[in-house]
Amino acid sequence: MSDDNDRTRPRRASGSARLTDVARVAGVAPMTVSRALNRPELVTESTRQKVQKAVLETGYVPNRVAGALATSRSGLVALLVPTVAHALFAEVVQAVMGELTPRGYQVMLGLVGYTPAQEEAVIETVLSRRPDAIVLTGCRHSPLTRERLTRAQVPLVEIWDMSDDPLDMLIGFSHPAVGLAVAEHLLARGYRRFGVITADDSRAARRVEGFMAGIGEIAGSECLVREVGTPSSMPWGREKGAELLDSAPLDAIVCSSDILALGVIAEAQSRGLAIPDELAIMGFGDSSYAGASFPALSTVRIDGAAIGRAAATHLLSRLGQSGFSRSGDILDVGFTLIDRDTT
Amino acid sequence: MSDDNDRTRPRRASGSARLTDVARVAGVAPMTVSRALNRPELVTESTRQKVQKAVLETGYVPNRVAGALATSRSGLVALLVPTVAHALFAEVVQAVMGELTPRGYQVMLGLVGYTPAQEEAVIETVLSRRPDAIVLTGCRHSPLTRERLTRAQVPLVEIWDMSDDPLDMLIGFSHPAVGLAVAEHLLARGYRRFGVITADDSRAARRVEGFMAGIGEIAGSECLVREVGTPSSMPWGREKGAELLDSAPLDAIVCSSDILALGVIAEAQSRGLAIPDELAIMGFGDSSYAGASFPALSTVRIDGAAIGRAAATHLLSRLGQSGFSRSGDILDVGFTLIDRDTT
DNA sequence: CTTCAAAATGATTGCGCTATCATTCGGTGA
DNA sequence: TCACCGAATGATAGCGCAATCATTTTGAAG
Q: Which CATH number fits domain B175-301: 3.40.50.2300, 3.40.50.10700, 3.40.1790.10, 3.40.50.2000?
């Protein structure tokens, strides 16, 4: 029987080159290779070149897993958004990555959906990667999530919402204020009988609350609400728009996203309703296509890229520091009501 | 001077609980805790409960960085797309994550843009994380990238393109075939004088080549091309559309994305051109809003979600296996030409 | 040609976990 | 009752790297 190499079977699976291999080829100590690669200013030009040559020769690719363990800095930033299938959040992802990638950080993307349970699960696995920082959409979390995040002692930005008591940093806007602004806009135009189509999403719900509060102040105004599942889509908008229009005479329909509003436009057109005279329609998000619909959609613009950039910038300024201490910074980037041709 | 604790300063920064801490609290060996958490079937019910209790008590969160180093399995899948600010790729991301997250894999997102240089840079840093698998958009890579990926010996799916010689697995569609199909469709409708607006993107360029080849077969057809920068946008479409319409009389304008096509529609409408009688317009991607424009946009539908799901599924089947061996599987998911009201 | 501080390099150790043994425990049949 | 076997648990070592300190080399001044 062949028990010759049974004893000291090496554990490493990947045959790829290690720091040690490079060091041997370069004829220097492993530590010198490490320095040549990570802090070249500490190394003579000539050794740097020897190492460089050895790296090419061996095809060495540093193992950041090992590096992360040794330094307890993972170089990973967790970015948690409900979805990327929504232009608004895609914009945020794009902006955050645009800032972080050039600084050597990599982004671990997590989709938390719109339910606390999913958020909890994602947060747990994300924390097990020991990210250097976290960007988290929303600021209404389950107590367990709050506790885990607090314990983790990691720089954190909550985005896309507003609160008085952020876990750490907060960059976003007030959803009730959006609803209120929409209400004021539509009331000023003389609309009184409203329909609302909203996704099953707590932030959308708070926009609706703000809207209701706004119209509640004018006697004679009324409002019917329909909820749709996620993801929002044109067919959902059209279906629920039809339901609303069949239920009661309406002056305006407010939607929790532009894509729903497009569905309502389609339904209104199919019924021969004049927009906005017989039916006004309001979206949310100012997606790239909002100005291209016919008629052009009135909506609320959120600058997702600005939120993403600000989040990344604030985190980066914290990542330089050594110890962790809660920041408490709050930045309200606001929103813009864009009045096009549907209101 | 206080040199009392200078000597053996502990290296660990984070004060968070380790496996050892849990073991001490539970009164078992660290290895038993590891087993209780990762392979509970190897452990008595009673110890499992002791460990569970100790985990809660200590607030232990496993350190997957250390775990990855010990097992040389990172649990990370790298997902490299040009951008997420484009609905098509966002759909892919969403689908891939939808399959992988429930299986315990986390996604490291990389944006490679549309230039080989950026791809190279991203690939290098990505490989340093030792991902268990890679999903990579496109299959035209620089020699350096190809070599690095080959050496990495990691299950890999190239998506969103077609080739005879994939690095490992390939799931996508043929871009020239898309161009050809569009040409045939438009020629059949009687259009002969074409304009093309295309992003500066090699895959779009190959669609254009296919298109040119298609119209080249019909005598008397001609074609003017205008290129736009990334990201594509409505204003780009409108501007280049105007340029084209000013340059020569055209029957149809073909765009490398739906959003450009919307810009062309806007320009055509502003000039009072009847669509499609005086100007036909063709998009690409069948974005959610394509059917909502007025007139509804003719376009080419790509099922990004199907590609993403297939990619994830194929990778998962490989991740079970032990050794690495190149697969060579190729899957062409095709595309659908959607004939709406602009052609 | 020394001397000495600063710069460059090297040796050692540990980050937190799990693979891989070795050991102990509990139950079974003679 | 005791040897025996598989199941459960424990001890040890190492994954690949960088922090830290020890040692060597360099170069400027005397």
A: 3.40.50.2300
